[in-house]
Specification:
Elements: H1 8-13, H2 25-48, H3 56-67, H4 80-110, H5 117-138, H6 151-165, H7 167-185, H8 190-196, H9 201-216, H10 224-227, H11 229-248, H12 258-267, H13 273-297, H14 306-334, H15 339-352, H16 357-368, H17 372-388, H18 394-429, H19 435-446, H20 452-470, H21 476-486, H22 491-510, H23 516-552
Length: 553
């Protein structure tokens, strides 16, 4: 059932269903305990293996098991919506602890400035808080629609639904999860194949091409990463994506044709153009305020002249919001987010501008604190949107459910902050520092090779052109650059192979059908079938990622 096609009589005559609340005692206790687990998993894996797994599926499975314990008070956890709150909190806690808090504070530590760890932690907390607030304000807009792919969100939602209803869908999802888990155990990137069944075909085709080219280019004697080619493509694509985002903030009135169609499409969403505009502008203002706090707490204000300080604050604020938007768009379409690479782009810009070492390190840490939580909250909101879409009336239930998810994630963020504040010193003292933070510091100390910025600007031109031609709904330039930056072995074949299977299965189901309506229904059923397979593959791969904890320990 499409939630946006409910009739007015349905919306007014049906009683409003109350969404479970994040601060209900049982839900809150489970949420806090799972958030502690998620934060520990996140910091152990980011410091030992350099990865941060999506723990949402683990949270959903544990919540299901708790709901089946024969105690009256725990039976509440059988609710899909409470399970959604728990999985939102644990995944938020994992990414917050690993990516948004520990990685930024490791930058000044690796630089030898332990006195700046606590000021940097304060700045990272601001970045994390603003990051999640902006996504909460703009999710389900034309820029970041609920109808977007958000693959990890689909996996979490389908896992919860399968555990509740069973049947054919559970069987298909289960088989997909087993295949995804077994494949991941043998080092195949099965999550990439799962993504291929879930997202926009054009965006994923560019992502797959980028992955394949990034993998095989070194075999022909050309190291794209070392030459900063992917970074240049991302600069061009990112600038165009930013302009496209600004254009989506416009309010269109009257008229006919594409503009009117876009306005009609906007009207069907819970966040329309004025709200999108306010959310992004508020985010920009808050990020600038956060940069001012970092400048004062980190001593930047005493190191730079007034014009240089103003420029530093402006660059840090712009870097933060651009970083979160690019990471969010890439995550929505591909399920992967190039947070490290985009942060590195702003680091290179800082080197070109000759920003001193300590201010540059603080700017890099502040930028790195944004993006991952933004993307993760999008995944969780997508899961909730799928679980709530049959509610009547839909919109009040959806808006309240999204608010409760946001509150649950704030609980996860609070737990992550406590865990990181307690654990960082022992981890860093043992030499367990996130590898990406060490790369940032090495780049700051080593400086730029001659011609780096020229190469990036040259490659920015095709990146901008591809992004422009693909438009904001496909994000082709951003996804091509993401694939080149990620360059995971065999992932390109997985994505492109999944797209080929997807197209072949759709055509096979269509065989013999001539009626346009029947063909459309057949295509929709094919998409539903393959979405289950893709969700299972992503869920199985996520289970394997969490299983890496034993290896790390």
């Amino acid at each position: 059932m499409n939630p946006n096609t409910q009739t007015a009589s349905e919306a007014t005559s049906a009683p409003v269903e109350a969404h479970p609340r994040a601060f209900e005692p049982v839900t809150l206790v489970v949420t806090v305990l799972m958030s502690v687990l998620g934060a520990l998993i996140g910091i152990v894996l980011i410091t030992s293996l350099g990865v941060s797994p999506n723990t949402a599926v683990i949270g959903a499975l544990v919540a299901m098991l708790i709901g089946r314990i024969p105690l009256g008070v725990l039976a509440r956890m059988r609710s899909q919506h409470r399970q959604n709150l728990v999985q939102s909190a644990i995944s938020g806690s994992t990414f917050a602890a690993a990516n948004s808090l520990l990685t930024p504070i490791a930058v000044p530590f690796a630089l030898g400035r332990t006195d700046l760890v606590w000021p940097m932690l304060g700045g990272a907390v601001i970045g994390l808080a603003v990051d999640s607030w902006v996504l909460y304000r703009v999710f389900d807009s034309r820029l970041l629609p609920a109808t977007g792919s958000w693959p990890a969100g689909i996996a979490a939602a389908e896992t919860i639904k399968a555990g509740d209803t069973g049947g054919r869908k559970a069987a298909v999802l289960g088989v997909g999860a087993v295949v995804g888990l077994v494949g991941a155990l043998f080092k195949f990137p099965t999550s990439a194949a799962g993504v291929g069944f879930l997202g926009n075909i054009w965006a994923l085709a560019m992502f797959g091409i980028g992955l394949a080219v990034g993998q095989y280019a070194p075999d022909f004697g050309y190291d794209l990463g070392a030459e900063r080619v992917p970074h240049g493509l991302m600069v061009g694509a990112g600038l165009v994506a930013l302009v496209q985002a600004l254009l989506l903030m416009r309010t269109r009135k009257g008229g006919a044709g594409p503009a009117a169609d876009a306005e009609s499409d906007d009207d069907e969403r819970t966040v329309q153009a004025p709200q999108l505009r306010r959310g992004l502008l508020e985010g920009m203002g808050l990020f600038v305020c956060g940069a001012i706090v970092v400048a004062i707490a980190g001593g930047v204000a005493g190191r730079l002249s007034v014009p240089a300080l103003v420029g530093w604050v402006a660059l840090a604020g712009i870097a933060a919001i651009v970083h979160q938007l690019i990471v969010g768009l890439a995550a929505m379409h591909s399920g992967w987010f190039p947070a490290f690479a985009v942060t590195l782009i702003f680091l290179i810009i800082g080197l070109v501008l000759h920003i001193p070492t300590v201010p540059l390190a603080l700017m890099v840490g502040y930028t790195a604190s944004t993006g991952p939580a933004f993307a993760d909250l999008g995944y969780d909101f997508k899961a909730g949107w799928l679980l709530r879409r049959n509610a009547v009336p839909w919109q009040p239930f959806e808006i309240e459910g999204r608010r409760q998810q946001y509150l649950a994630q704030l609980v996860g963020f609070g737990v992550a902050l406590v865990v990181v504040a307690i654990a960082w010193k022992s981890f860093f003292s043992d030499g367990r520092v996130p590898p990406v933070s060490e790369v940032y510091v090495a780049t700051i100390k080593g400086g730029l090779e001659p011609g780096t910025m020229t190469t990036m600007l040259l490659w920015a031109i095709p990146g901008a052109l591809i992004q422009f031609l693909g438009g904001p709904s496909r994000q082709m330039g951003v996804l091509l650059a993401t694939g080149l930056l990620v360059a995971t072995p065999d992932a390109g074949w997985m994505v492109l192979g999944a797209l080929a299977i997807r197209q072949a299965y759709t055509m096979w189901r269509r065989r013999g059908l001539t009626d346009p309506k029947a063909r459309k229904e057949s295509d929709e059923q094919a998409e539903n079938d393959l979405s289950l397979v893709g969700a299972g593959l992503v869920a199985g791969s996520s289970l394997n990622d969490v299983g890496q904890l034993t290896k790390a320990l």
